[in-house]
Amino acid sequence: MKKYILFLGLALSGAALTSCEKFLDVNTDPNNPITSAPNFLLPGIISQGFQQQMFTALTTTYISQYAVRKTLASSTDQFILTNGNSTNTFNYAFFYSGGNVPTMVAAAEQEKSPYYIGAGKIILAMDLAHATDMLGDLPYSEAFKGAENYTPKYDPQEQIYATVQSLLDEGIALMKTPATENTRPLYISVPSPSGDILYRGDTDKWIRFANALKARQLNHLSKKTSRYDPQQILQLISASFRNAADDAQIQYQVAVAPLAGTTNIFGVTRANFGTATFSNNIIKYLNGTVAGAAFPGVTDPRLPIMLAGSSSGSDPGIGIPPTSNLLNGVADFYNGWYARDLGIFEVITFHELKFIEAEAAFKAGDKTRALTAYKAGIRAHMTKIGVGGTFANPNVTFPTITPAQIDAYLASSAVAQTEAQLTIKNIMEQKYIAMFLNPESWTDLRRYDFDPAIYPNLKYPVGAPAALGNQWPRRMLPGATEVMYNPQAVAALGASAPDYITKPLWWDMP
Known about the structure:
With 510 residues, this protein is mainly alpha-helical.
């Protein structure tokens, strides 16, 4: 599995660069530059773009009912959302990551390094795609202008979707530029790594990454019958990731000064899930022995890896004593593979694309391709997380998943065996397992309207606000910084309505 280094603490990763007025050239301090080469800007653009989705996952993990709170706190697992839940989703897109893209692009254009321009466009597209899928309408046509416009208008989500596709197409074209036409290598390793910390200068992987993002976004349009084109999605899948080595992910690392915040957003050190445990919903998918198991008699070999062998959880809004569900002295949530302090964060993966392929092929009437992709998605996920190993904080040893175990599971009643047996429910429930903790799962739940025929173990939470009218959340609230500094644009969204979060997004409607 390809590992990538997280540089969250790079000096230029946290804030947008600004230019200052020069009174005398002789007063320019060479030790405090006001511009930077693109190779020193790109690491922060990449890592902060990934960080955007990590922070979103702090909220969506509860909405998607992977986890619930042991201590009732009138919070996200009861669909009680605040503007603060969304602040990082917005800010990391528009300031920390996307806000640095124009500066990098200008520097790359000046020195003729089109690879950096292409990478900037692809990451900006990723930032905008994620933000719009969580929030809806966004600033873009008037955004990224700095002091020229602190209160940009919001563009309709349909327009943002078109912008994302255009940026990805432009990024792909730039990544096809001959290396001889680039002044600066896309990845530099000496004297220290800089530039492309994601794919280490492999432009083919950047192109596959962009095609993967294009396929995902177009698959979101499944309710738009006049726009949804499964054949186009399948063509993009064929031009995207070839295996797990192409996965767009970031490796967490030990926080050594001056680095900070480089360990897992789900891990013990960051302490975001100390009062969390696994939901009964996800346990029923993996543990074939509990009451109401999704696959009775079939214990998933991923159970002791993903859920640390937990056989009991809770439902949202119920709560259990804070001391319950402890393993190794900490919340059982921290003993799972995805909560390793030095684990990975996945943005988009080969196994996700296999499930997108299965869904699109199924809707295109190609059941043969759908069944093959569906099983390949299960196999790819099991293979990726089933490598075993011992990890610290807490000290957990994970079992391996052998090829024989994978074959046995694929031959079990948990998996559709024939084209005639295969349904959308089969595809989406296995995708839900494989997308554990990823914000993209909330998008799938919305696309299928939280349908109990597809997701039978979801529970509407006890204590959800009456104003929601028993409806599920369809969007997050505008970020708190926008409420403070761009109030007129936020007001135009109607975000003050008590049931605002239940309003479907553009792609969530026919």
